[in-house]
């Protein structure tokens, strides 16, 4: 139906509101785009935060891994020196793959080293380097699975590269990284996706370039990184921002390996329910180089190579005590993965 068509006064004519709501709750996310065109009331409902949390509480959301992945090379006479990147969607439960449409501003490939996070069913792409000029960008884009469209959000307040990122309940947090002069940063900001507004947070105690962001419950962990004067010497500590307290705290010896934490940090639950950080490149020999990990419910999607120059492998691990099982991937989706996140649609 067209948007200007007469609006329904009931969600589904002839059905009680509660029953109609439950019917719409059970619609698979892949049909949301078409369903949103039925009428304005359906569209507003399907796009609302309350409906998202209702579906989540009812168990009708769907989790998958969103991966910033090298695209297949185009058949051209002139070779391409730099890979192009897009976003692949991998469901480890069904072993199915899909690819999201390109960001309109970057139709030929995403910014290099961009970060991805997800919150309230939306995918957020942030920062990176322009694929043509290699200049750092402050762009922020949001993908709405209901409409299957990208929108541009408020730019990051300042330019930064190789920063930590996380998302909690409609908020996207960034911290650390380095500026255009290669100075490591200790500043942090939070973006309200709905309001499209950035607010500055308190500064971390230390500069942290090439750090990694991990969300544990309602806390944003900024793991390892190094300072301007100690480039390449990764810290063993992490700094943790509490969404409730609005303050940072330092956790010593959180990162016990002297290597870059980017994309390879995992959260392991101890016997007493306590969480600890692990480096997948250290615990799994198959992904020692270029590792990337995305936790999707009880499954963990792990990608990487056994050694420098080895083929890029894809694996799935069932539960905390399971073994890595190699996944056979079609050529279209076998490209190197730079980063990824879990999206709950």
UniProtKB/TrEMBL annotation:
Matching Pfam families: F-box, Kelch_KLHDC2_KLHL20_DRC7
SUPFAM superfamilies cross-referenced by the UniProt entry: F-box domain (SSF81383), Kelch motif (SSF117281)
Gene3D superfamilies linked to this entry: Kelch-type beta propeller
F-box domain sequence ranges: 15-55
Biological processes, Gene Ontology terms: negative regulation of cytokinin-activated signaling pathway; regulation of phenylpropanoid metabolic process
Top-level taxonomic group: Eukaryota
Listed PANTHER family: F-BOX DOMAIN-CONTAINING PROTEIN (PTHR46407:SF4), OS02G0208700 PROTEIN (PTHR46407)
Listed name of the protein: F-box/kelch-repeat protein
